[in-house]
Amino acid sequence: MEWGGVAAGVILIAFGIGSLVLSISGHNEVQTQLSREKIVGTPDMTPEGIAQGAQEAGLPDSIELPTCSVAGEEIDTGSEAKCFADYMRIHALESTGGLAYAEMGQYVSAANPNDPAGTNDPAEAQKDADGNPVSNGARNIWVTETALATALYTSFLAEGTALFGIVVGIALILAGIGFVILALGGALRSRAAD
Asked: How many domains does the chain have?
């Protein structure tokens, strides 16, 4: 039984070391890939700056504004990536008059070409030189914003998962050491009793 405890402890220590190595590697990979993209926060990426921009764009007060700040900072951590993505969402809302992707039509409205809400009816859409409906550019802003923000949010999630893996690795190592100590302690006591 004692040697079974030692074996279990050694296995836990091995899994803990493996978890630590993979998690540290994943954490470093997230930061390396973010740094490689050379993303830098714009000057308005402060709570005060974005509040002013949102007010000037006429965004409703119900829109939740970011409270973090990445103005002038290189984005190289998951938390900074999430913060930057939160600001990107507000920038997209400023560009579309406060409308999200699902609130806009696929085409530019012929009746009101400056309205970002557009229309989903091709018959009511503005037409190009070939008679085809004109795509709603304001809606396309959301396609780009969503793709970029999703990548940034994934970096945040990946870094958080890596940090959790580091904690789990340390816990496994400590549990394994505990198993070994308990198993060897029991083996030594039984030998002393003989």
From this structure: 1
Cβ neighbours around 85 below 10 Å, total: 22
Look at residue 141 and tell me if it is in a domain.
yes
Q: What is the pLDDT of residues 39-87, one digit of tens each?
A: 999 999 999 999 999 999 999 989 999 999 999 999 999 999 999 999 9
DSSP state of 132: P
CA–CA separation, 24 vs 13, rounded Å? 16
pTM of the predicted structure, to 2 decimals: 0.82
In a domain, 122, yes or no: no
- Asked whether the CA dihedral 31, 32, 37, 43 is positive or negative, the reply is positive
Give the dihedral sign, CA 153/92/69/51.
Answer: negative
Report how far residue 188's alpha carbon sits from residue 194's, in angstroms, rounded to the nearest whole number: 10
